[in-house]
Amino acid sequence: SSHSLCQPETEEMFHRGPGLNLTSGQYTAPLAGFYTFSTTLHIARREPRRKRQGCRGSRVRVLICVQSCCQHNSRLESVSQLESSGDPFTISVTGTLYLQAGQYASVFVDNTAGSPLTVQSGSDFSAVLLGV
């Protein structure tokens, strides 16, 4: 069997940690420290074609919040203005948050568009411990 040069020598160098719970969508910090979070959501609007006129100024906010608490100092945020075309679009949020051990972070979508949104497959959410 060929040995890839990119393969980590030890298991500890890279691993998908136990902190991410795919059922709840929460990442729980194993250690207190600074974490860099990143999410990319592919979003589609489900609405009847006749309703696509109007509703100017509808927007979608994507937030990564600590302990489901989206106050200013415990969140990362991106706001996207919705196009009237109704085409699928992508929103990304990246940044650093401080978490205590046992605290969790999760992604929220704040939809002011007035029409249902669907997060499509291929969307992702990741967390990396930068340092304690």
Automatic annotation (TrEMBL):
UniProt-listed GO biological process terms: negative regulation of gluconeogenesis; positive regulation of D-glucose import; positive regulation of insulin receptor signaling pathway
One of the record's GO cellular component terms: extracellular space
Domain C1q per the UniProt entry, residue ranges: 1-132
Tree of life domain: Eukaryota
Entry's localization field: Secreted
Keywords: Disulfide bond, Glycoprotein, Hormone, Hydroxylation, Secreted, Signal
Single GO MF annotation: hormone activity
Family to which the UniProt record says this protein belongs: Belongs to the adipolin/erythroferrone family.
Protein name, as recorded: Erythroferrone
Organism in which the protein naturally occurs: Pheucticus melanocephalus (Black-headed grosbeak)
Lineage: Eukaryota, Metazoa, Chordata, Craniata, Vertebrata
Gene name of this polypeptide: Erfe
